[in-house]
Design goal:
Distance between the termini: 43 Å
Largest sheet: 3 strands, antiparallel
Strand order of the largest sheet: 1-2-3
Order of helices and strands: HHHHHHEEE
Number of helices: 6
Radius of gyration: 19 Å
Structural class: mainly alpha
Helix content: 55-70%
Oligomer: single chain
Number of strands: 3
Strand content: 5-15%
Shape: flat
Length: 186
């Protein structure tokens, strides 16, 4: 079986790059002047990149009749079911704003989940086993950068003036405490 309109190598490369850059910029996305310097910028970045990935992926998805791999078919069907369920649950709730944007200081609503699903569908279409070294390069660079920044924070040389006097910031994640024994990341 073949794609009715398969991604060209150039389109696949663009989607791969956008998905990987989204991971990097979402991880590094902060805006220290905001009351929520972590979650709101990360939501914006992920939605921005997901829109670009969707723009490149949708023509292929709309024109697709059959897929080359059974795992692609299963992944796309599960993604479609998830997106339909997300749309239905966000539209029938009494708290529309919270359903779309998420809890205050969380930004984990339907918009963020839709962006994540679109990035997953784009990655499903664009990544093949032969180019699995590419994500490793991006993630290694990101890990090196975050490790260096974590060392700067550990030594008290944090160059970012965080607007948060209550909870420590560890790399680009905010640490919250339920109580003193069970910290969790936001």
């Amino acid at each position: 079986m073949r794609f009715a309109k398969a991604l060209s190598d150039l389109e696949a490369k663009k989607i791969q790059t956008l998905v990987l850059l989204c991971g990097i910029f979402t991880t590094l996305g902060i805006w220290t002047n905001l009351e929520d310097p972590v979650n709101l910028p990360k939501m914006f970045v992920s939605v921005f990149f997901a829109a670009m990935v969707a723009g490149l992926s949708l023509p292929t998805l709309i024109g697709t009749r059959t897929l080359t791999l059974g795992s692609q078919r299963v992944g796309l069907v599960l993604g479609a079911i998830f997106l339909i369920g997300l749309l239905i649950s966000a539209s029938v709730t009494d708290v529309q704003y919270t359903a779309i944007f998420g809890e205050f200081h969380r930004n984990n609503g339907a918009l963020t989940l839709f962006a994540a699903a679109m990035l997953a569908v784009g990655a499903l279409l664009a990544f093949k086993g032969s180019n699995s070294l590419n994500p490793l390069k991006y993630l290694s660079l990101l890990a090196l950068l975050l490790s260096f920044y974590g060392l700067l924070q550990f030594t008290g040389s944090d160059p970012i003036n965080w607007n948060n006097q209550y909870n420590p910031i560890i790399t680009t994640l905010q640490l919250k405490y339920i109580d003193t024994h069970f910290p969790y990341f936001v």
